[in-house]
Amino acid sequence: MSELNELYQQMILDHNRRPRNFRAIEAPSRVQEGYNPLCGDRLTLYVTLDGDIVADVAFQGSGCAISKASASLMTEALKGKRVDEARALFDRFHRMITTPPDQPVEDLGKLSVLAGVREFPTRVKCASLAWHTMKTAVADETAGPVTTE
Ligand code: ZN
């Protein structure tokens, strides 16, 4: 198990160092700010919708390794998905990182590298920031900035 944890840690560090889809999108369908005051993580999420398909998704911002890696992994996971699938994935991801550490969680592929935050309640907000921001970004009604508080 510790070897697996090490592998997961490597992946998080890699996504932190070289975040995927770390850029602005010109003329996106949606732009949404997200902020986690507990840690100071900030991000701007850009989404291009083609009908109900997430055609492109990218982010910029600054924050801890967990928040950045989570946003990076999220953009990879969402591209090409339908909006309702993106929302369903939010629910599954959120469940994964809020299930007590002694209970089994669903395998979410690459996203499972973040399951370890379950053991660190303050880190849950770092890992979920991008996802909360995405959920608001693809919502039908417009809203103000997302904070995790
Ligand atoms: Zn953080």
Attribute tags:
4-stranded mixed β-sheet, 4 helices, 42% helix, Sufe protein. Chain: A, 149 residues, alpha+beta, 19% strand, binds zinc ion, single chain
Structure description:
By secondary structure, the protein is an alpha+beta fold. It has one domain (3-143): Alpha-Beta Complex (Sufe protein. Chain: A), CATH 3.90.1010.10. It is built from four helices and four strands. It has helices at 2-17, 65-78, 83-98, 121-137, and strands spanning 30-36, 41-50, 53-62, 146-147. The protein has a four-stranded mixed β-sheet with strand order 3-2-1-4, with helices on one face. Strand 2 and strand 3 (53-62) form a beta hairpin. Helix 2 (65-78) runs parallel beside helix 4 (121-137) and helix 3 (83-98) runs antiparallel to helix 4 (121-137). The longest helix has 17 residues, at 121-137. The structure holds zinc ion. Zinc ion (ZN) binds next to helix 2.
